[in-house]
Amino acid sequence: MTDPILPSLFLSHGSPMLALDTNNPAHAFLTKLGKSLPTPKAVLVVSAHWETAAPRITDTAQPVTIHDFHGFPEPLYELRYPASGNHALAHQVAALLNQAADMDTIRGLDHGAWVPLLLMYPRAEIPVVQLSLQTPLGPAHHLKLGKALAPLRAQGVLIIGSGGATHNLREYFHQGGDHHPYEAFSAWLQVILTRGDHDALLDYRQRAPQAARNHPTEEHFLPLFVALGAGGSRAVRLHHSFDRTLCMDAYQFED
Predict the structure, then answer these.
(1) Rounded distance, CA 107 to CA 130, Å?
(2) Which of 38, 66, 86, 172 could form a disulfide with 127 if both were Cys (CB 3.0 to 4.6 A apart)?
(3) Which residues, 6+ apart, have CB-to-CB distance to 160 below 8 Å?
(4) How far is Cα of residue 189 from the mean position of the Cα atoms in its chain?
(5) pLDDT (0 to 100) of residue 170
(6) Mean pLDDT per segment of 10 residues, for the chain of length 255 residues?
(7) Would residue 179 count as lying in a domain?
(8) Is residue 63 part of a domain?
(9) Residue 223 host element (H or E)
(10) Is 3 within the bounds of a domain?
(11) Positive or negative, the Cα torsion across 109, 47, 115, 72?
(12) Residue 15 belongs to what domain range?
């Protein structure tokens, strides 16, 4: 029996409190998402919270849970996501990238990886590997990375880009709950992805409404390009909500 060809996903992970905040609509969405997909053999995550000059891949038998944040309630720091790594998948990712990646045998899973996975697959029974971002290389580089990883989908690997549809933390903390300035960017993104206008998306800094305000830095948007490259041109928005100024949109990509 052949493995199902899985879609790729772009998930907005928002605040680390997403793991505990049952009043957040994105929390409820993610708890149902894992059940709606074929069970993957492994997960490959590209998170906004791991940036390196060249691609790096986690190759750790039992990656630790990284609490890469400060000033949150103590119960958040008590959470653990004890998923195993996957040595074979890590080396296959390197091969698909023409060996243009280094192995990291120390690093664990940052909250961009473990927070959504904790909600999607709470038993942590699915192995997880992370791949880093190269933020200065921009959208086209990450779209190319995603295209190189696309064959993994037919082998039962779920590819997740974890970032944010919008990510302006200064206004998140100082503007309160007013998310209206960010609605136009979210609406533009949905239109462009549904239309399959990749040229416009690659040029989003110039074409999207208030792009620099929605993404003062690019690291939370670049995982979208990896998911898009890996999944194909058919995009479906699975979820739309806001946590203050953070748009929590989620997309599924497939051929």
Answers:
(1) 9
(2) 86
(3) 8, 9, 10, 11, 43, 44, 45, 46, 113, 116, 223, 227
(4) 16
(5) 72
(6) 87 96 96 97 98 97 97 96 98 92 95 98 98 98 98 97 90 64 93 96 97 96 98 94 92 95
(7) yes
(8) yes
(9) helix 222-231
(10) no
(11) positive
(12) 8-254
CATH number at residue 96: 3.40.830.10
The one-character DSSP state at 194 is: H
Which tokens belong to 172?
A: 């998140």
Reduced to 3 states, what is the DSSP secondary structure of residue 225? helix
> Is 18 a member of any domain?
yes
CB distance 161 to 224 below 8 Å: yes
Q: How far apart are the C-alpha atoms of 150 and 192, rounded to whole Å? A: 21
pTM for the full predicted model: 0.96
- Phi then psi for residue 130, to 5 deg, are -110, 145
Tally of domains within the chain? 1
Q: Which of 120, 53, 50, 113 minimizes the C-alpha distance to 85? A: 113
Percent composition of the chain: helix, strand, coil (DSSP 3-state, to 5): 40, 20, 40
pLDDT score, position 120:
98
pLDDT of 175 reads 60
* pLDDT the model gives residue 101: 82
Nearest one of 205, 254, 196 to 230, comparing CA atoms: 254
